Amino acid sequence: MSFLRMTNDILKEEAYKMQAEQIQALFDISLEGADYLAQMGERGAGNPEAEAILENLREIAGILAAEIDGTGLRRQIHLYAKNIQASIDDLCARPALYERIIHMEIRPFVFEMQRLWELDTKHLATTERRTAYRKEIMEQAAALHHSLQREYKYDVSVKVLAYNKLEYTKYAVESILTHTDFLRGNIELILLNNGSDDGTREYFESIPHAKVMNLRHNILGTYAYTHILEGRYFVGFSNDVVATPHWLEHLLACMESDKRIAMAVPVCNEESISNGQGRPVPYPNTFAGMEAMQEFAAEHNQLNPALWEERSQLMPFLAIVRTELQQVSATDPVYTQAEFVDDDVSTLLRRTGWRQVLLQDTFVHHFGGVSLTADRQDVRNTALQEMRSVYYEKWGVDAWNSRGGFPVAEIVGEWHTLHGDECVLILEPRFGDFACEIFNGYRRSGIVPHLTAAVFDTRYQEDTGYLFDTTVTAAGIAEFATRGSGKYDVISAGVYLDELPLGDVIADIERLYALLTPGGMLLLPVRNPVSAYELTSLIDRGTRDLYSGAHEVKSYRIIPGEQLFSAIHTHPYLRPYKRHKIIYESDMPLVERMTALQATNGSSAEPEEQLLSVRMFYLGLFKEN
To answer: CA separation (Å) from 116 to 46, 88, 141, 330?
Structure first.
């Protein structure tokens, strides 16, 4: 076989600070050897040629481990090389597991090592190449909307990844086995031990019919499993999650309901997650509480598509994803500290027209929420700031300030009676959080509105396709209004009023009001510039809470709330109107601080009169029939 001859030739060369071409040649022959071993299957056990190939793979892995090290991708390549050596040693010690170790470890490790090498030396080597590669990934994700369906052996691949915490892992796996119907033969279970030393490996190998992958050396963010997936859909199942009745049937039903859905996620106990993906529960977050949890979940988990919510972004503590998208959207290596990875993947999906859905009708338990020590919290805070800037540099917008979300979105349904065939206009939706909440309110009422996005900041133009039926770009309110874009039953801003491209404030509100149908509502979120939150930011930072990149200076405008409401109150036809105060409980310490400052300055005004506690208002304007 040419593999052995090429291997021996290269290993005879100077092996010490090898050139990139020599390293690539080692990768190439490793791939050929791994494929050959996989084709031989169990026939390779004891076969002299197969044993020679394994020995050469071990030697190549040793050279690669010695030659390639450092940080980032090169560190991962180094660790995969060491894992290949460890798997070959394991295979020699346990020949009965020959076929599994070849197929589930050695071959996928070689393929992943090669993928990372190409990323490091080709696709991400320069700024220009990184830009071109990211564009290619976007194009691949978008093209999957129209690609022919591949044939898969299974409907779903469920992967459980564990790094120690065996007691949690056992709860996770046993719950999957209890609440998942494997008898139909359409689901595969993949158990990935990522360097555990607490008995996880032995436990995984005791589970019948599971695919088991063992990494002797832990690799943060391993994607080796993507090379062994045989399901149309992929489920990433954290080892601190506990499955419940109908969990997978509901997730699968959601994915099958629309080919545009990329990802679906259930809800869990609210203390273990953020992003509005949790709900209050009547049981403790302990092993002892799991019986009560299952009773709660059994009652909760009743299939109801009206409770499926559109989201601009999801935290996939447990998620079902189209396998082809999972393979395309592997974590961008620029996120070196495991923060903002979810934001990045959600942005890729959103900007390529893929839907992300939260299933409020499906509950699983998430232990999560492991307390951080003060030192670990400081490290995490530093990582958050560093990776936030990485996201900003990559996408050109801030991950947090771009969400376009506000609390109490149900006010739309309280102030306006929802009807079928309504047309809804969202001004500057950005990522679309508030637009999603409005859409979800209609959906819960059994109504699907026609959504139009008016985008003024073109950086967000690609963020609308997943949700909106129509997207219109304009330089400002006046330009949009003069285009005669139609009439709307509901018009809402997706940002604060002071963030819209306004000319004359009242004149632009009049223009928007003119676009309402009889009985329509104009909803405007209004920032309170004299809230304790805003004043604290001005005192502590010298500016509003705006995120800026390096060497950027951003300006902003202020719309005095009381002047605005006074102008509306005396306006000849912008009526009737309503306003609603939004108070954040988290702002109360800031209110106390500002109150103390006022007292120091001799002010006798009451905090409520100064509106310190009110972060924002909703202003609602209604056109009578």
So the answer is: 32, 21, 19, 11
